[in-house]
Amino acid sequence: MNYLELIENKLKTYFPQGKEKDSLIEKVLIDSMEYSLEAGGKRIRPTLTLIFSEVCGGTIEQALPFACGIEMIHTYSLIHDDLPCMDDDDLRRGKPSNHKVYGEDIALLAGDALLTNAFATVLSEEAVSLVGGEKAAKCGRILAILSGMTGMVGGQVIDLQSEGKKVPIDTIRQMHLKKTSALIKCACMMGAVVGSNNEEHIKIAETYGENLGLAFQIMDDILDVVSDEKSLGKPIGSDAENEKSTFVTLLGLDKCYELVNEYTEKAIKSLDGINGDTTQLKALAVKMSERKN
Ligand code: GRG
């Protein structure tokens, strides 16, 4: 089985299936959670957790609950991000966003439940029995810090506060370090904790994840502009006054492609300090820098 299948199969085990699924909570709330969890995400973050665990000396089986935990947090963030009070998006991954199907109230609660269940998952008896209480607690702590106030949620606040303003590149970088890199970094660090809990490995996972996250986000900004140009025939910056500042509006496309390469190289270079086989991590960084969606 490949990483994607392993993650998809494991995620299903955290939800009641078939006949058991007959209470009101399960019909509404769990359907809504599963709708977004199973909506075709690329599973980049959980894949990173699995690979880092292996590279640092652990197993995929040990890392799976932690991989599922981070995907639950990622999914909650997307559901909340699409709500009318945030980005107000009707579509996610080409399908109606969660609140368009289940209503704003259930979408909000599905996000809340995914957030809290992520911690139930990484601190579960299964997770503790696979890696021990110390590693599970450390993963829970890293997950809480990087997804919360000074991590992803903090990044979302910088984003909201920057709306409609021309903000300096440093603020944009800070926003992406928190909003995007924090969870990617977290996925890598939890894998390293599971695999070895060696401080040097955890530091490498942090540097790799941070740089990969920045490259990923800048590529996202590039793809936004390039796909607009293709589908709408709009030249870059044609309605700049209506758009928020991004790496592309502030630095231009050429510089952004350069930055994607620079951060990808930094991510790859950071792996030098690991003895395990880092081929997949290097390939993944290159693949993400060349992605088209
Ligand atoms: C609402 C608390 C809260 C946070 C929202 C993650 C986020 C913060 C907002 C989503 C919007 C966005 C563009 C975030 C940047 C990170 C990013 C590019 C997310 C999409 O990640 P992918 O491409 O998603 O891994 P898939 O669909 O593959 O799962």
UniProtKB/TrEMBL annotation:
> Which keywords does this chain's UniProt record carry?
Isoprene biosynthesis, Magnesium, Metal-binding, Transferase
Which cofactors does it use?
Mg(2+)
The answer to keyword NADP applying to this record is no
Q: Matching Gene3D superfamilies, A to Z?
A: Farnesyl Diphosphate Synthase (1.10.600.10)
Q: Which InterPro entries match?
A: Isoprenoid_synthase_dom_sf, Polyprenyl_synt, Polyprenyl_synt_CS, Prenyl_diphosphate_synthase
> Which PROSITE patterns does the record match to this protein?
POLYPRENYL_SYNTHASE_1, POLYPRENYL_SYNTHASE_2
Q: Which residues form a coiled coil?
A: none
Q: Which domain of life is it from?
A: Bacteria
By its UniProt entry, which SUPFAM superfamilies does this protein fall under?
Terpenoid synthases
- List the Pfam families hit by this protein, alphabetically: polyprenyl_synt (PF00348)
Question: Which family does the similarity line name?
Answer: Belongs to the FPP/GGPP synthase family.
Q: What is this protein called?
A: Polyprenyl synthetase family protein
